[in-house]
Design goal:
The chain contains 8 helices and 13 strands. By secondary structure, it is an alpha/beta fold. It has a 5-stranded parallel sheet with strand order 2-1-3-4-5, sandwiched between helices. The protein is elongated, with a radius of gyration of 19 Å.
């Protein structure tokens, strides 16, 4: 029998925590509640969590900071809850690694549907071969500083990366020698905002090739998988 997915609900509102835990349990999930980031960290030490639902605005450490930690240390999907409804919250949340977001007040049925969709997408992606918390990654003549989002050559010349190019390069470095379809790359770089008919990933790959390949027209690092997508052929190591 397949184990029920275990959902962590982190919200400083007891009413919301209790409501969501009961609702998720009623619909076949295991659910554990935490009233803040500190409690969530304690739970993660002794429990295997499949997905976290995080409130953005919490006393002490907020949901955005906790989201960044969860994605880097535990590699789990994250759905953010935001009361503000401001676009900047959503953008920052996605930049921190959130897979989806939903504004308060929300319909529990919608959140349930979002949880199911995010889990299906996460389970369809190849597992990372490299931990997300590696600060500096070396490949070929390049070093990627993930904290500064800076790509530097062996002779110290910095090459600027757009946010999209950075996310794409990270996706490749975390899954070297794994064939990734265009849709998988869209999920890894754009999450829920990706359009399933979007082919902008090809343009992003072309731009990245121009920056890291010696001959972008005959790429060695990012190779095309015909009718499939792309594969990163390098051997990234911690720098």
């Amino acid at each position: 029998m397949t184990a029920q997915p275990h959902i962590l609900v982190v919200d400083d509102s007891r009413d919301i925590r209790d409501l969501l835990v009961r609702y998720l349990q009623t619909h076949g999930y295991r659910a554990t509640a935490a009233d803040g980031a500190a409690a969530a960290r304690r739970i993660l030490k002794t429990n295997s969590i499949d997905l976290a639902v995080l409130d953005v605005m919490m006393p002490g450490e907020d949901g955005l900071s906790l989201c960044r930690t969860l994605r880097s240390e535990h590699d789990m999907p994250v759905i953010m809850l935001t009361a503000r409804g401001e676009e900047i919250d959503r953008i920052v949340g996605l930049e921190m690694g959130a897979d989806d977001y939903i504004g308060k007040p929300f319909n529990p049925r919608e959140l349930l549907a979002r949880i199911g969709a995010v889990l299906r997408r996460a389970n369809s992606l190849p597992r990372k071969a490299r931990a997300s918390d590696t600060k500096r990654i070396r490949f070929e003549k390049w070093v990627l500083d993930t904290a500064q989002r800076e790509l530097v050559t062996s002779d110290g010349v910095a090459v600027p990366l757009s946010a999209g190019e950075f996310r794409l390069l990270i996706a490749f470095l975390e899954r070297p020698k794994i064939s990734l379809t265009r849709d998988q790359l869209l999920d890894l770089t754009q999450g829920r905002t990706a359009d399933p008919f979007d082919r902008s990933i090809d343009n992003a790959v072309s731009r990245l090739r121009r920056k890291i390949e010696e001959d972008p027209k005959n790429p060695r690092l990012i190779k095309t998988v015909w009718a499939g997508g792309y594969v990163f052929t390098g051997d990234p190591v911690a720098a």
